[in-house]
Fold this protein.
Amino acid sequence: WLPHGKSVAGFLGAWAVGSIATQLSLAFVLDARRICTAADQLTFVVASGFFGAFGEAIYLGVDDNLSLPVVAGAMLELLMRGMSLWQGENADDGECWCGDFQSA
């Protein structure tokens, strides 16, 4: 068990659901081709699920409906910057987030 009534099973479930939701978002909503390699995409999917589970599991003294998106969003922003995926104003220019993109 984790503090404040959180369980390891709930953490792992949140991680799995977050990862699946991220993969579905990449497949159907976002332009997943902009994440250049399969390894980058897998890293992004697994990390996104973990960040959501982490945001759910920690207790910051506020409702987790507030802490989860704030914590997960901040961590994803850092991940995107760390993976060089973030281009700010140039995000819609058709370029790959992490370097050269060769379309299929």
Notes: The CA atoms of residues 36 and 102 lie 8 Å apart. Helices lie at 8-28, 38-57, 64-82. Confidence is low (pLDDT under 50) at residues 86-91, 99-104.
